[in-house]
Specification:
The complex is a heterotetramer, with two copies of chain A and two copies of chain B.
Chain A (H helix, E strand, L loop, with lengths): L2 H23 L17 H9 L5 E5 L3 H8 L2 H8 L23 E5 L6 H13 L6 E6 L6 H13 L3 E7 L2 E2 L2 E2 L9 H5 L5 E5 L4 H13 L5 E6 L20 H9 L2 H11 L4 H24 L18
Parallel strand pairs in A: 1-2, 1-3, 3-4, 4-8, 7-8
Antiparallel strand pairs in A: 5-6
Helix pairs in contact in A: 1-3, 1-10, 1-11, 2-3, 2-8, 4-11, 5-6
Chain B lengths: L2 E3 H15 L3 E4 L16 H5 L4 E2 L5 H13 L3 E6 L9 H14 L9 E6 L14 H6 L4 E3 L4 H13 L4 E6 L6 E3 L13 E4 L4 E5 L3 H14 L4 E5 L2 E3 L4 H10 L2 E4 L8 H12 L9 E3 L10 H7 L3 H12 L23
Parallel strand pairs in B: 2-3, 2-4, 4-5, 5-7, 6-7, 10-11, 10-13, 13-14
Antiparallel strand pairs in B: 1-8, 6-12, 9-11
Helix pairs in contact in B: 1-6, 3-4, 7-11
Classes of the chains: A alpha/beta, B alpha/beta.
Bound molecules: thiamine diphosphate (2 copies) and magnesium ion (2 copies).
Chain lengths: 318, 346, 346, 318
């Protein structure tokens, strides 16, 4: 029985459960922040963050629930922020699109497509300069591949040989526009592989496969590494609903992906690995309680005071 | 007359111009998808086909240069951005290329290029989805900048923008999309560069941009009950800015408040204040008061966000102060808020 | 005291700070090459090595985000651009990321990031190599904006900028590089946010930015001969702007001219005019006069370029008009022009 | 004897001669505009423009003397503009960095690296839409490869299948920084070849080889084509002097390139092809006269009037 496998499952479950509760509570109109749900894509941040050390640093997009929780496991700060409370990671100033916890290595989430990528490169430069061994890992969607800044940043990271792990969560769509309508090439990995970096790719929902892939990427991090991972977004681009009748993608596609849902895959592994249904359920229950508690706390917490608006425009020495 | 929404007015303007002139086309991220840019591009794909209404890869800088190239070669592009903030990725093309292209050819060439961009607000848009930036565009010679407030202005000004042979930045506040008003069915133009007295009054002038006109109207209604008559001037076009209308109003009332949907420092409110102070020198009964965003990035949580934005109450308080009135009790006042219908996510 | 040039002062500030703090590094296109950014990075590569003084690929947007990332991780980057215009490619990083990063972490993190950018002028720089854009940066909360005029301010303010834990945009006019003046040898700071009375006077206040201070000094000298005493206020920092010094001066003189090295519309001149009109309400003897670029893109040919830029003559004429003086005969006046030494190409 | 060969030589000679005269007259301080000389790189614009039809359109950088003259052959407008006169292509408003002649198909020259590239893509879209068969050709340096907008534009042109001819004049340096210090990859053509376009490359100073290469690129212009051509800048980055003792490149490099100077190569071909030394010299003389005359006229012409400053900010219907 592998503790690692169990740990990975618990992380996947935490994120899924947290988002299920967002879906449940969002209609109450108390989390007033645009939700870009990770649901369906959880295995990537979980697998990759498992391969990182706690000191390594991550950067993400507005679709960062999974990355944030995979890196920090801080459901209190998470819900505090979604509810816009004093207890949130940024006292409500950031919301769902800008989740971050610099102390825990989640340095930034940004709602401008691709905009965190150069930050990761510069942060990696600082790490290299300071010889602290930290790796910078940046998560972005397939949409970021369209933006020039991705190409610039890749080039800079390669020419400077910086310890950056680029992770493309390719869910085949930027909002509702499929990659095939946006990409003037057949294979992105084929292209990127010709830069001075190592490219890894996989079409999998198995969190352990992703974990292992990330591990091998990290072994060669004397150069930048580029992970290209296919995945599927279960819910609409922004919001908590399904959108299979919107016309731009079909429920059949979802069905095929859902058959290999990352939680199901990992759960099956645990059972095969000797864990009992009860082991799993009792772990799930603990997580359910933890999250319910985080939500309770978040709702009970107070909103930031008016003077908070003006605080922190510039660095505050306290 | 027929009543339609601001959003429908934008849609109708584009449809009528695309009917009239086959050179007009519309493009941008998400333009033809089922959300139709909050409805404003409804029906265009079906009517004009994918050559004249199309989606693009995510690359604002390139697609702005693309529009310039297409315009120079005889087409009339309309480029749409669901948030003004994304234009920050295209500033090089806008400022270094688009704005100066006509000049660099000695005025010989035409650049009939419209950029529609939407100002986001509310439901935790946060600091990257809430900017207006109209002062950025107005600062640069060679760009025209339009911010319509009413449905009928939206239609008439968008048609003018499309027919203009120069680049026009057309800024639309998301919350105005639901505004409904009388709008003529046939195509018509409203000249770029002309302001509008949105409400006549005699005691004080409020110069407001975009959504702030709605707040100003609310304020004016409340103040009317206490006998204060507010005149509201909507410049509509801020570049070129015809300050004559503003100055005339201020000369009449002697007081001026500028309510801008933006930060104050080096913004459009400063431009208006500077011009009013100059043109109405010696005729002002009080200094020009500027109202705008708090000097912070836009926070996400509603309570701070509400504080970040200027509103009708701020205008009322400013008017009271200027006219030396007692503070009206607003506790029972029910200010109309689009936030009520603006439930997440966007 | 020792006299050195503005360029040497910048160089010395960087060298001394890099000596003091190993976290400081300097980078940008051409930074270590033999031209040394017009000399201002002289000796840094040799002294600090290629890890702390390096060239980059051509990608302004990325190298700006790079600086932010490095700053957040404990370094103190100085990013140099030989033209401010190139920052237009980085506006997304500057406005959407750099300016708001500290705020988005609740003020917890530091972003000690200096961006030095040079304003080009003359010898046919043209419309893409002559912008200043300081109002763009000052418009956005979270950025500090500094424009030193004198060598000693250049050194003291650059050291302050490097030691500041927040992003600072540091704008240098190319023509000031040759200015020579007394500059202390040891490191010293000049507080960001404090203006300076560059010249004391009693009849009229000129608020000038960057190179326009030189023009204002020339104007003041000529006017002095006819008995007019001009006070020149150099704000030095335009964000945050301490308008107290300006207002105090204007209250004393009763007249104010703003001479800005930029276009007028929605520019810094508008901000100053708006604040002066407000803070000195009722104490102004004439409206604030604004002087700046012509409202056109910058043309290449010298004769039009000379006309495009405001100069000492414009200031003299404005002063005469304000004070009701006769026009001084300037035909024999030999205005000092850096253009004489500024022979092509850059 | 090939008229084509002779014509190509005359174009090369025109450009070289024009620039030699710039070198001669620049110290007089009358052409007050920053000169980015084409010298050494002429074969590329000349060969490519020969392959284009007169209706095809070009876009260039600030280093566009060669492109402008190859496309327009208008030495009068050229010198008029350099001298900043009323007779210049833009009445002096543009100068050396913004040479253009829209009527003759030179649509734009821009001093911001890579900034003309998306214009060419959009202009090509218009041409395709209007089915006028025109091709848009954009010249840029190796420096443009670093900028994201090149990658974005390439992607857009490929996905939209637009008739764009990308021409990279790779002179191995951006200002003084060599490509090897700026590029996080080994072969740019290898990478670009994996986009949905046709890639052509050559390391040649033979204008006819470039012409033929451009012809084959144009044959396949149903997709974008990318020409990558090596070349060498003879003079300093900006200005009219040599800079071989500046330290960033060696005179030996220049010597090797100069041995195969494009004019010498083409002259040799003409002689081998049956043209006499005299044929050539008398053609050269005519060109010398033409250029001397253009310069004379430009010097004699008047500067734009003061009111010209304010004209043309917006389109003028006249
Ligand atoms: C620069 C920029 N352009 C446009 C947008 C609007 N937008 C928000 S999300 C998105 C799609 C991004 O797709 P992708 O990168 O694949 O991420 P996903 O949402 O699929 O996770 C777009 C276009 C934006 N936020 N930033
Ligand atoms: C966006 C931008 N960044 C920086 C510069 C400054 N600059 C002018 S030319 C140049 C080098 C360009 O090199 P390349 O594209 O190879 O063209 P070449 O000069 O070699 O013809 C640079 C960096 C600029 N003009 N534009
Ligand atoms: Mg995607
Ligand atoms: Mg080059």
């Amino acid at each position: 029985m592998s503790k690692l496998s169990f740990g990975l499952y618990k992380k996947l479950y935490t994120i899924r459960r947290a988002e299920e509760l967002i879906v449940e509570h969002y209609p109450e109109d108390e989390m007033k922040t645009p939700m870009h749900m990770s649901m369906g894509q959880e295995a990537i941040p979980v697998g990759v963050c498992q391969a990182l050390t706690p000191e390594d640093q991550i950067f993400a997009s507005y679709r960062s629930h999974a990355a944030f929780l995979a890196k920090t496991e801080d459901t209190d700060g998470f819900f505090g922020e979604l509810y816009g409370k004093q207890t949130g990671t940024a006292r409500g100033k950031a919301g769902s699109m800008h989740l971050a916890a610099p102390d825990q290595g989640h340095l930034c989430s940004s709602a401008i497509v691709a905009s965190c990528i150069p930050l990761a490169v510069g942060a990696a430069f600082a790490n290299k300069q300071r010889r602290n061994g930290k790796v910078c890992c940046v998560f972005f969607g397939d949409g970021a591949l369209d933006e020039g800044v991705l190409w610039e940043s890749l080039n800079v990271a390669c020419v400077m040989k910086l310890p950056v792990l680029f992770v493309c969560e390719d869910n085949h769509f930027a909002v509702h526009t499929p990659t095939r309508m946006r990409q003037g090439y057949k294979s992105i990995t084929d292209i990127i592989g010709r830069f001075d970096c190592n490219v890894f790719q996989e079409d999998t929902t198995d969190v352990e496969a992703i974990y292992r892939l990330a591990l091998s990427a990290l072994e060669s991090i004397g150069k930048p590494a580029f992970l290209h991972l296919k995945c599927y977004r279960y819910l609409e681009h922004v919001g908590i609903l399904e959108d299979f009748n919107a016309g731009y993608r079909s429920k059949l596609e979802f069905d095929a992906w859902y058959k290999r849902d990352c939680l199901a895959v990992q759960r099956k592994r645990l059972l095969a690995d000797g864990y009992s249904e009860e082991d799993i359920i009792s772990a799930e229950k603990l997580i359910d309680e933890q999250i319910a508690n985080s939500i309770r706390q978040a709702r009970a917490a107070s909103f930031p005071k008016p003077e908070e608006l003006y605080r922190g425009v510039f660095h505050e020495t306290d | 007359m027929r009543r339609i929404s601001y959003c429908e007015a934008l849609n109708e303007a584009m449809r009528q111009e695309m009917d009239r002139d086959p050179a007009v086309f519309v493009y941008g991220i998400g333009v033809p998808d089922h959300k139709k840019i909050f409805g404003s591009t409804e029906g265009l794909l079906e009517r004009f086909g994918p050559d004249r209404c199309f989606d693009t890869p995510l690359c604002e800088e390139t697609m702005t240069g693309f529009g310039l190239g297409a315009a120079v070669n005889g087409l009339r592009p309309i480029h749409i951005h669901i948030r003004v903030d994304f234009l920050l990725l295209a500033m090089n093309q806008l400022v270094n290329m688009v704005s100066a292209y006509v000049y660099s050819t000695g005025g010989k060439l035409k650049v009939p290029f419209v950029i529609r961009a939407i100002v986001g607000r509310g439901w935790g848009q946060g600091y990257q989805h809430s900017k207006s930036l109209h002062s950025y565009f107005a600062h640069i010679p060679g760009l025209k900048v339009v911010l319509p407030t009413t449905p009928s202005d939206a239609k008439g000004l968008l048609i003018s923008a499309i027919r203009d042979d120069n680049p026009v930045i057309f800024i639309e506040h998301r919350w105005l999309y639901w505004a409904v008003d009388e709008v003529a069915e046939e195509p018509y133009t409203i000249p770029i560069g002309e302001g509008n007295i949105l409400r006549s009054g005699s005691d004080i002038t409020v110069v407001a941009t975009s959504w702030m006109n709605v707040e100003a109207l609310e304020a004016a209604k409340v103040l009317e009950r206490t006998g204060v008559s507010v005149e509201i001037v909507d410049p509509r076009t801020i570049a070129p800015l015809s300050d004559g209308l503003i100055a005339e109003s201020v000369r009449k009332t002697g007081h001026c408040i500028v309510a801008d949907n933006d930060w104050l420092d080096c913004g459009f409110s400063a431009e208006v204040a500077a011009r009013v102070a100059e043109k109405c020198f010696g005729q002002l009964k009080s200094p020009v008061k500027r109202i705008g965003f708090a000097p912070t990035p836009c926070p996400t949580v509603r309570c701070l966000e509400n504080q970040f934005y200027p509103n009708a109450v701020d205008i009322i308080r400013a008017v009271e102060q200027k006219l030396g009135l007692d503070s009206i009790d607003l506790s029972n006042e029910d200010f109309y808020s689009h936030e009520r219908r603006f439930k997440g996510p966007f």
